[in-house]
Amino acid sequence: MKWVLGAALFAFAMGLAVTAPIPVATATIDDVVLKFLPPETMGIAFIDVAALRNAPLVQSVLQGKDLPLPGGLGDAAKTGFDPQRDLDKVTFAKLAGKDGLAIAQGRIDRFQIEQYLRDNGKVPEAYLGQNLYRDRDGALVLLDNVALAGQVDAVKKALDQMQLPGSLPLRTDLRTAMQTIDPGSHVWAVGDVSNGALGAVGVPVAAQGAELLKALRSGTYQMRVDTGIQARATGEFADVQSATNAGDLARGAITIARLQLTRQQPDLLQLLDGIQVTNSGTTLTVQIIESGEQLKKLQDMLRPTIERRAQ
């Protein structure tokens, strides 16, 4: 799925996970979400927004500021829905082909939001007894405390699935991958990885890295937030050599970063000590464990650059 590696890099940059190890157990999807996921679901990503909002590290970083949310949600307050307060969980599903589906859960007043959409010229299309609001190739459906968004076909497939008397099982590989996710993870993702994943989410990829991504078949990602971060990403490659090459590339990048930090920012060297890259056959694992203190130093270092770009 396109967002596995992209989500991993974003999570590392934001510093969202924990410092203490967690026992391995099974991640779960609640019944509300499960009834919308068709059997052709190829990848799943989950974000516990409410838990992240209350995590000590996030509270410390934000210091009373709003939690950053994806573009477009900033205008949601005009509908009476406040993402900072009302959004609890978001589940993303990668379906076969290029279709994607987002399932948002929280305090969602469907009637108030639909009235806002109608007042702004949005005419609903009836589909299986639900109001489907289209915007080019995208669509939105509002249910009680649930919103479905994505490509039109993906949203319709979710509504089709909802009509079935019982939820069909997810793919075996997804269920197996979910069993590797630690309980209580605030963000996790499992499933297929599409070629060119990093480029698709706007992350520059060197030619050597892009070539290696072609051999990446599936992956998992998980993170948990407390006073620091703990995150783990795994990638399953087509062959041992590709996994080894990817690991060597990652370790080489860490070595180069260590040399640069030694000269320019020696106080940040401990950040690199918290990143471990290991290989086992066709599997590459990246483990990240960072303290809140080290992440605060990183935040202070990056702040001038971020503020400059925001101007």
Structural account:
The protein has about 300 residues and is α+β, with helices and mostly antiparallel strands. It has two domains: about 1-25 and about 180-310, no CATH class; about 30-170, Protein Transport Mog1p, Chain A (3-Layer(aba) Sandwich). It contains 13 helices and twelve strands. It has helices at about 5-15, 30-35, 50-55, 55-60, 85, 110-120, 150-165, 170-180, 195-200, 205-215, 240-265, 270-275, 290-310, and strands at about 45-50, 85-95, 100-105, 125, 130-135, 140-145, 145-150, 185-190, 215-225, 230-235, 275-280, 285-290. Strands 4-5-6-7-3-2-1-8-9-10-12-11 form a twelve-stranded antiparallel β-sheet, with helices on both faces. The longest helix is centred in the last third of the chain and has 25 residues, at about 240-265. It is globular. The two termini are about 35 Å apart. The model is unreliable at about 1-25 and about 195-205 (pLDDT under 50).
Rg, rounded, reads 20 Å
Globally, the shape reads: globular
Q: Give the strand line-up of the largest sheet.
A: 4-5-6-7-3-2-1-8-9-10-12-11
**End-to-end span in angstroms?**
33 Å
Overall number of strands: 12
Beta-strand content: 25-35%
By DSSP (H or I, 4+ residues per run), the number of helices equals: 13
Q: List low-confidence stretches.
A: 1-26, 195-205
The H-and-E topology, N to C, reads as HHEHHHEEHEEEEHHEHHEEHHEEH
- Give a quick account of the main beta sheet: strands, pairing sense, barrel closure: 12 strands, antiparallel
Task: Give average pLDDT, whole number.
Answer: 78
Question: Domains counted in the coordinates: how many?
Answer: 2
Summarize the amount of helix as a percent range: 25-40%
In terms of structural class, how would the helical and strand content be classed? alpha+beta
